[in-house]
Amino acid sequence: MMERWSLRLRVFLLFAGLAAASWGALGAGLWAGYHRLGDTTVLPAFVQAGVVAGFAILGLTAGIWYLFDENVARAIERLAGGMRARTHAAVTGELDASPARYLGDLAPAAAAVTLTLAETRNALAEAVARETTRLQAEKDRLEALLSDVPVGVLLCTGDHQLVFYNGQAVDLLGGGAAPGLDRRLFDYLRQAPVAHAHARLLEAGDPDAASDLLVATVAGARVLAGRMRLLDQGRDGPGYVLTLRDVTADLAAHAERGALLAEVFDRVRRPAANLQTVIGVLAEDEGAGPALTPALTGAMLEEVGSLASAITELGARYDDSRSDWWPLAFTRASDLADGIRARIEAAGLEVTADPAPILLRCDGFEIVALVSVLAERVAAAGLARSFALEIVEDGAGAMVRLGWQGPALPLGQLDGWLGEPLEVGLADVTGRSVLLTHATECWPDRDAAGRAGICLPVREARRAHRRPPPVTRAVVYDFDLLSKARNAGVLDSRLEDLTYVVFDTETTGLLPAQGDEIVQIAAVRIVNGRRVEKEVFDTLVNPGRSIPAGSTEVHGITGAMVADAPRIEEVGRQFHKFAEGAVLVAHNAPFDMEFLRRHEAGIGASFDNPILDTVLLSAVVFGQGETHSLDALTHRLGITIPEEARHTAIGDTVATADAFLRLLPMLRAKGMVTFGDVLAEVRKHGRLLKDLNG
Length: 694
Hints:
By secondary structure, the chain is an alpha+beta fold.
């Protein structure tokens, strides 16, 4: 049992026992001497001498104990803490041996050991870095490739936990909350289609089999088409890769086109039936005299007009819907103009181009081919050999106009050209098919200056703007999660198997019971022993009250900055979802948790997560005698907090997370492997902070 006590406690008990033994020996000696004398008159003198000698022994023992505690026991603890930090937390820098200056050669020997360890580690790190440079480059290329794959890609364990997702998957699953590693897939997708597809593949037993599925997001906003393929056997059964694409718009367009087609049949069928009846009447009365009475003629004209109007309207609506779903990309007008110029000049003709700074939704290759072929045929017809190409805005779309000085092109001749192939040997690609693809027409005209030309409208265009800064679409993954063992109980879980959410708050003051409120919450996730850089929670909070100037001087947040921020009830729900299923970690956790738990009723959720406090963890590793502020802890662990990030929620959160990650191997080195082991140890330091785990 004694080996579980701290060194300082054992030293204290040693000197306390020595003092007690000295008192006992002194008392026994005085008692024996008194009885040898046999003189009762000297008893007060013996008692007085015993008390004086006893206090002298006590004072001498206490003094020696203090010197021994300060210069031996505490020095050894500091020396051990520094050695553990450099051994297990990869802290660099020379070991401070000054606290152990009275320990003889122990301090220099420890410094030499840590220096040799650091040199060996650096040499090993350089060797590993050299050997892994090629692998890192391949990894970066793979990540870049996967981040640009135009479909969402997910990798899940056999029990449907996320271990990989790319940027497109964030867009597909997001709905306001990005996915997270080691989270249940069914937090984002409806369970039944995914589970059934997984079960079908397991029953098939074919490693090359794939299963197609249609699944909706949990929020119901999107319908996704997916394909699932099994991976190798994992700890929880075969995992799987799931590719997803959004077919919500495709389904809506398909339904709209189906409804339009049904309406076409309905609206054309009735006028056609009526015309059939009228024509039948005419056929029956053909030999009986004049059949075209004014009433019958009016009925025929009305039905024909109704039929023509219906066909015209339905055709226009079909063109509109077709242009919506046809997969056309935006192309710069300058790129179109350059392609058209190249084709026309290659034919020995002259052309000037004046494109507006716009983007056109079109098939650029087809538009270039159509306009350049029309220019060649105009030249072959002897109408012109020099052209002016204009691409300008025209309402919601754009107008492409090929103009020339000379005779106008007859409409019938243009119609004939549109029916001819644009390329020799490609009979299917005609000018008419290009127009059909783009749901448009083209016609000859003359402009205000009298120049002849051909007009080709494009239905959709937009102004070209400066490209915004690229959005980081990095892939997020940890393949070790595929084989990670999962324990049902947190107390029995290994520290590296748990998911942690490290968080920090900034507030209007230090007294929540007197009305102070949160103004900022930040958090990061730690999964499988590493901080996931892309999974960050950081938001301002409207406290519903003014922010004192003294608090603003600390964290830099003003009332104007939080005026439009959400209230704590909304932010609390978002943070509760972000921290779901994780161990909460904070520096001085009781302070932050009190602010959150005051609003649990309004949030509609309880923060009953297991909690670890880095103040207590620091006391476990470095001893209670040290300073355990965040600045002191990060300094001991070799972590630098940028000055601009200090006393910001996200800056302190990242610093706390990095410190926690360096404390974990030091805890394991002290024999604390499970969460329960750590919890039992931190509760011994309750006089520093209250443990919040019930």
